[in-house]
Write a structure and sequence with these properties.
With 239 residues, the chain is of the alpha/beta class. The chain has a single domain (2-238), classed as TIM Barrel. It is built from eleven helices and twelve strands.
Length: 239
């Protein structure tokens, strides 16, 4: 299992939100590229970047910051938040982004998922954000009636390279991930799953490591607040 540091972008700054609420933002840095370099120096192999303005508005606003992050580091980068059409996917891939994360469109424009998977095999991940097992969209503002597991199975069928699964009731709360729901998601699928939300201690990392075949765990707030030493977390997972 790999540990994946997160950079959430809002107004060009590196921030963290509490349970995805845009009014509960803590600014950690106004230089996201240097933050990315810091995480790479700790041994990170993959960086998770979210355009929060894009997630809330449906239109990415932080492309310049994403470009600078890409130029600053050698590690692989996955980007999500507000990617709602093929033009934006094309642009991100052309910038050297390794994988794009599609979320809201999995519900609203499933044909775009199919098209993107055909055009960029292995480069399309689907982000599934769930509350009580049901999918939330538009920056978690709306909770649908769609079951997270059913959507994941459909996305696997469409050719998605993997699922990023977030339990949004846990995100940013520093209360630990939803191990049971994450294990169920992993066991339901043949494609890789990355866990997100609530990863707040080395113990959480170890608990997630116990889930057989879980590809990785994303951590954000915990590494910014020093609740997790990223270098130490990576060392444990590589031991």
């Amino acid at each position: 299992m790999i540990v994946i540091p997160a950079i959430d972008l809002k107004d060009g700054q590196c921030v963290r939100l509490l349970q995805g609420k845009k009014e509960d933002a803590t600014v950690y840095s106004d230089d996201p590229a240097s933050t990315a370099k810091k995480w790479e120096s700790c041994g990170a192999k993959l960086l998770h970047v979210v355009d929060l303005d894009g997630a809330f508005t449906g239109s990415q606003k932080n492309i310049e910051s994403i470009r600078k992050i890409r130029q600053a580091v050698n590690m692989e980068i996955e980007v999500g938040g507000g990617i709602r059409d093929m033009d934006r996917i094309d642009l991100l891939i052309s910038l050297g982004i390794n994988r794009v994360i599609l979320g809201t469109v999995a519900i609203e424009k499933p044909d775009l998922i199919k098209e993107a998977c055909r055009k960029y095999p292995g480069k399309v991940l689907v982000g599934i954000d769930a509350k009580n097992g049901l999918v939330a969209v538009k920056g978690w503002v709306e909770v649908t009636e769609v079951k997270a597991k059913n959507l994941a199975l459909k996305m696997q069928e469409y050719g998605a390279a993997g699922i990023i699964y977030t339990d949004i009731s846990k995100d940013g709360m520093m209360t630990g991930p939803n191990i049971k729901a994450t294990r169920e998601m992993v066991e339901s699928l043949n494609i890789p799953v990355i866990a997100s939300g609530g990863v707040s201690s080395i113990t959480d990392i170890k608990n997630l490591m116990a889930i057989k075949n879980l590809l990785g765990a994303i951590t954000g707030k915990a590494i910014y607040s020093s609740a997790i030493d990223l270098k130490e977390a990576i060392r444990i997972t590589e031991a």
